[in-house]
Specification:
The complex is a heterotrimer.
Chain A: H1 25-53, E1 57-64, E2 76-83, H2 90-100, E3 120-123, E4 126-129, E5 142-145, E6 152-154, E7 157-158, H3 161-169, H4 192-198, H5 209-213, H6 215-219, H7 226-236, H8 243-253, H9 267-271, H10 278-294
Parallel strand pairs in A: 1-5
Antiparallel strand pairs in A: 1-2, 3-4, 3-5, 6-7
Helix pairs in contact in A: 3-7, 7-8, 7-10
Chain B: H1 10-14, H2 21-47, H3 54-65, H4 68-96, H5 103-126
Chain C: H1 10-39, H2 47-54, H3 57-84, H4 89-118
The chains are: A alpha+beta, B mainly alpha, C mainly alpha.
Chain lengths: 297, 130, 122
């Protein structure tokens, strides 16, 4: 549904017939529907007023697709005009559009502060977090699409299953066999330098922006992808990781569809909302793997 | 997911305006690589005339070099080789983890430098053919 | 993902060799271009000139090394590009062997030509 400002029909609300002592169920329902419609009308009217009041309105072009609803199976772009306020993010605008104009507009969001990783979107041709992207930093109108290279389930929602599978395939945990016994020490310490080394790699929020931006991941479905390799880096470079597990992990990432597929296009590094130097980490793992191999010669 | 909509790969090339420096570097490196490996096979084929005797070899090469189109293609080959070398140096540094922050600038630098070297070489390459 | 390992990992070795050959090729390709376009003009090449160059052991050896490394670097690059496109299974095996055979033919023919050029066989 487009934003167009809808003519508000003035419906007479005075039909209520209090004369009848027993209100039929049907009528109660009718009243309920009417109240709802009135509430929606109020919201829309309010939106119109806000649009008129605000100095600026942002134009959003939002990708829409719903395989379950007749007439919406064909992907299309809907336009929404949303009143702009200072500090407005793309996510704010989407929420406004959903709440005021079209409640069927679907997108994921949760924390709204760039930590849950739910709202990675393709905004003006780039993977960004909706909640971390300021409207003022974009060219208007703003084009919002679901992440490329992932199947679209509905509107802006993509299927993340494959991404999660890749993340888990690097076995992102220490081997409990190799961690010190509880009796030996109360906690397992990591020195500051090592913590500093893996610091950035721990910041991944599993938003999938990197994987979506990667040209190679797009063509090769088996490629682990930047996020999963970064996850492997986070453990492989951690001094607390046991020797056996590290060898095992290197074996995982240096298979044909592991680190060697990275072509250093830096797309992932550029889109990462947490500024993780993904390419750098992948390159370091490549060198680590080569060194590891040369040791046996 | 049977009910999902796959937008296919059309977007990849349709969105070329949104490509970043690193992507362009990759595309050019790959393209120049294909050209160079193609040329390698052709080159050996042409030089193989040496097995047919000295005169055939000399005449073949001189005959080819007399064609203006061959000279122009050679300038193209130079451009391709110089870019592949310079961007290759850039990629080796990237592999060593050196200067990753400047990877876009080093790509532009290799482009500009390739252009300059090619322009400077044009006179030598086409002399006598036109 | 991790079904089978081998201590001699192919992807690893190919990646490493691609870099090593690159370093060598940067120098030799630049030298080759300089020598045959600036020092000697390509249009003035004669069999005698070629023979004079190829008779020097160092030059001959460099050219053979140039041929072998360039073939590896180029063909391996093509193979990588195809894997990046998602080539797999039987197709991948077929492509691999076609490329291996093509490389061998190229190196063999190139070496044969080099021997003719050096005047070792005539």
């Amino acid at each position: 549904m487009s934003t167009g400002i809808q003519e508000s029909e003035t419906e007479a609300d005075t039909e209520e017939q209090d004369t009848a002592a027993e209100e039929s169920a049907a009528q109660r329902q009718r009243m309920e529907t009417k109240r709802q419609r009135a509430a929606e009308r109020d919201l829309q009217e309010k939106a119109e007023e806000e649009l008129d009041d605000s100095e600026n309105a942002v134009e959003l072009k939002v990708f829409r697709y719903d395989p379950e609803v007749e007439g919406k199976e064909e992907p299309r772009f809907d336009t929404f005009h949303v009143p702009f306020f200072k500090g407005m993010t793309v996510l704010d605008a989407l929420i406004y559009a959903r709440d005021h104009f079209d409640s069927s507009l679907t997108f994921r969001h949760s924390c709204r502060q760039a930590i849950c990783g739910s709202d990675a979107l393709f905004i003006n041709g780039r993977q960004r977090l909706g909640c971390k992207t300021q409207m003022v930093d974009l060219d208007w109108p703003v084009r919002i699409e679901p992440l490329p290279h992932q199947d679209v389930v509905k509107d802006l929602v993509v299927d993340m299953e494959h991404f999660y599978d890749q993340m888990e395939s690097v076995e992102p945990y220490f081997d409990p066999e190799e961690t010190p016994k509880k009796s030996d020490l109360e906690e397992q310490r990591q020195d500051r330098e090592n913590r500093e080394k893996i610091k950035m790699s721990t910041r991944c929020i599993w938003c999938g922006a990197c994987m979506s931006s990667c040209n190679i991941a797009a063509g090769d479905n088996e490629y682990l992808g930047p996020a999963a390799i970064n996850k492997a880096y986070r453990f492989a470079m951690d001094e607390r990781e046991g020797e056996n597990m590290k060898q095992h992990r290197l074996n995982i990432i240096e298979q044909e569809h592991g680190v060697w597929r990275c072509q250093t296009q830096f797309s992932c590094t550029e889109v990462c909302p947490k500024d993780i130097p993904l390419t750098e980490h992948i390159q370091e793992l490549k060198r680590e793997a080569v060194k590891n191999n040369l040791k046996f010669w | 997911m049977s009910q999902s909509y796959d937008r296919g790969t059309v977007e990849d090339f349709g969105r070329w305006k949104e490509f970043s420096a690193g992507m362009w570097a990759w595309i050019f490196h790959k393209f120049t690589g294909w050209v160079l490996v193609g040329y390698l096979f052709t080159h050996i084929a042409v030089l193989s005339t040496a097995t047919q005797g000295a005169t055939t070899y000399t005449q073949t090469i001189r005959g080819l070099e007399a064609l203006a189109i061959v000279r122009v293609l050679e300038v193209g080959l130079l451009a391709v080789a110089v870019f592949h070398i310079l961007n290759g140096v850039r990629l080796l540094f990237v592999d060593l983890g050196v200067g990753l922050e400047a990877q876009d600038k080093s790509f532009y630098a290799s482009l500009v430098l390739s252009g300059a070297i090619v322009v400077a070489s044009v006179p030598t390459f086409v002399s006598g053919a036109f | 993902m991790a079904e089978h390992y081998s201590s001699f990992n192919r992807g690893n070795t190919r990646w490493f060799l691609q870099r090593i050959t690159a370093v060598f090729l940067i120098g030799v390709l630049a030298f080759h271009f300089m020598l045959l376009h600036f020092v000697n003009h390509a249009a003035e090449i004669t069999f005698l000139g070629t023979q004079a160059r190829m008779s020097q052991v160092g030059y001959f050896g460099t050219m053979i090394a140039f041929l072998v490394t360039a073939t590896f670097h180029g063909v391996n690059g093509v193979y990588n590009a195809l894997i990046n496109q998602g080539l797999e299974g039987t197709q991948k095996q077929a492509v691999k062997w076609v490329l291996v055979v093509a490389s061998l033919v190229l190196v063999a023919q190139g070496s044969r030509t080099a021997l003719y050029m050096a005047g070792i066989i005539a």
